[in-house]
Amino acid sequence: MSENKEIEVMQSVYDKNDEVAAKINSALTKSGIYAINVMGAPGAGKTTSLIQIIKRLTDVIPYVIEGDIEADFDTKTLQALGVKAIQINTGGACHLDSPLIGNAVDELGLSNGVLFIENIGNLVCPAEFMIGEHAKMLISTVTEGSDKPYKYPLAFEKADIIVINKCDLLPYVDFDEEFFMKGVRALNKTAPVIKVSGKTEEGFDKVVSWIMEKVK
Amino acid sequence: MSENKEIEVMQSVYDKNDEVAAKINSALTKSGIYAINVMGAPGAGKTTSLIQIIKRLTDVIPYVIEGDIEADFDTKTLQALGVKAIQINTGGACHLDSPLIGNAVDELGLSNGVLFIENIGNLVCPAEFMIGEHAKMLISTVTEGSDKPYKYPLAFEKADIIVINKCDLLPYVDFDEEFFMKGVRALNKTAPVIKVSGKTEEGFDKVVSWIMEKVK
Q1: From A126, which residue of chain B is nearest by alpha-carbon distance?
Q2: pLDDT (tens digit per residue) in B70-126
Q3: At the N or C end, where does chain A have fewer CB atoms within 10 A?
Q4: Residues of B in contact with A122 (CB under 8 A)
Q5: What are the CA-CA distances from residue A119 to residues A138, B94, B173 (Å)?
Q6: Which residues, at least 6 apart from B153, have a Cβ–Cβ distance to it below 8 Å?
Q7: With left for phi above 0 and alpha for psi between -120 and 50, is residue A112 left, alpha or beta?
Q8: Chain A nearest CA to B124, separation (Å)
């Protein structure tokens, strides 16, 4: 098969994805749902951050769609806390796409609240696929190192809010915040960058304030 | 475009990749090169681990191919240490493939040594693509959490050696080693699992012993 044919197929995949994403976004907006696509590397603490955020939300219903290749630990953790959450297993695919989200949204039966869509742990492909979201939240960590904006630029460029997790470990790791921020700001002038710790719970009030500004 | 057409194109991509990978593997073997595909999440410490391994290698020449979406920090770090290293930037692609490696191998001009191919930081796609390697080394970390084998099974299943990095941070994180190992062994009965720390340098002697067993 020719390379041109491969490029044509990939373009068709992107176009179809974006078309469905626009429809989902429109339907969610009509239902009073603000949807956030939560991205980050494996083990960045996406679910831990969602738990901290959700327990601080007032006057707004949280919903979660959990994306994983396999397993459903995070969905069970969230459901045990009383959160309306459902699992998507991609069975191998390295990112969520909009047809997968369309089905999950129908199943959840959403109205008036915030929908968090936790993407596959991956700093590359999730940033390339719209899934009907109103905003993208990128969760980075001090343990991953300060060169991540330079190595994985698209995720940092497209983020509407950047959370730096695991700040309780700052005394024990070599994280150069100035270098990190220089990399972020070369790609993204406006996204707020908020330091948090899933362990000490610091910083999540600021993340929740940002979300509530968007929702109200 | 139909879904069948998309599946056909993907199958063609895999087939073409594997065909080139087999040729590279054969050529490397003839040149006395043992090639290791080094995989891990963003920030797992792949380059840091390579530096610790390379400085312990005796009587064998190390070569490195560094894969990144963008940037070349790691190649420069390795070259500054006198290592013969070259950079591949995929410009967006989330994994290395064998045509990319074929070109880099020609450029490096290898003979009689160990070639480390540091893949893109990603726990998903790199495990799906052969790139001419003789073995796959997976670098996981205690900061990523102990559920990673369950969530990203293919990388753990296919690994010939599993390195758990950042063990100096064990006192400060919740890493359940028993749960981690249960997940690993459900997928992979034989790969040695070796705990290391890029910071304290513990454990790398064992990794180097494993490599030297393969090379001799």
Answers
A1: B94
A2: 999 999 999 999 999 999 999 899 999 999 999 899 888 888 999 999 999 999 999
A3: C
A4: 94, 122-124
A5: 10, 15, 23
A6: A69, A70, B187
A7: left
A8: 6
Q: What is the pLDDT of residue A109?
A: 84
B154 to chain A: closest CA residue: A92
Tell me the pLDDT band of A2, cut-offs 50, 70 and 90: low
* A1, A41, A125: residue with CB nearest B9: A1
Cα separation, B66 vs B91, in Å, equals 13
Cross-chain CB nearest to A121 (options B6, B123, B173): B123
Q: Do A71 and B147 touch (CB under 8 A)?
A: yes
Q: Per-residue pLDDT tens for A106-161?
A: 888 888 999 999 999 999 999 999 999 999 999 999 999 999 999 999 999 999 99
Name the amino acid, one letter, at A30. K
Closest CB from B43, B71, B152 relative to A150: B71
Question: Residue A13 — pLDDT band, cuts 50, 70, 90?
Answer: confident
Helix and strand element counts for chain A (H, E): 8, 7
Residue A1 has pLDDT above 60, yes or no: no
**Residue A13, Cα to own-chain centre: how many angstroms?**
21
Q: How many CB pairs under 8 A join A and B?
A: 114
> So what's the ipTM on this one?
0.93
Q: Which of B124, B141, B174, B182 is the best substitution to test chain A (most A C-beta atoms within 10 A)?
A: B124
Report which of residues B8 and B150 the model is more confident about.
B150
Contact (CB<8Å) B151/A68: yes
Task: Give the CA-trace dihedral at A20, A72, A119, B36, to 10 degrees.
Answer: -120
For the segment B44-52, the average pLDDT, to the nearest whole number, is 98
Give pLDDT, residue A3.
67
Closest CA to B112 of B154, B62, B183, B71: B62
Domains of chain A listed by start with CATH number: 3-215 (3.40.50.300)
With beta carbons under 8 A apart, name residues in chain A contacting B92. Answer: 124, 128, 154
Cβ <8 Å between B172 and A173 = no
DSSP category for residue A27 = H
CB contact under 8 A, A121 and B152: yes
Minimal-distance CA residue of chain A relative to B153: A70
Determine the Cα–Cα distance for residues B146 and B5; give it in Å rounded to an integer: 39
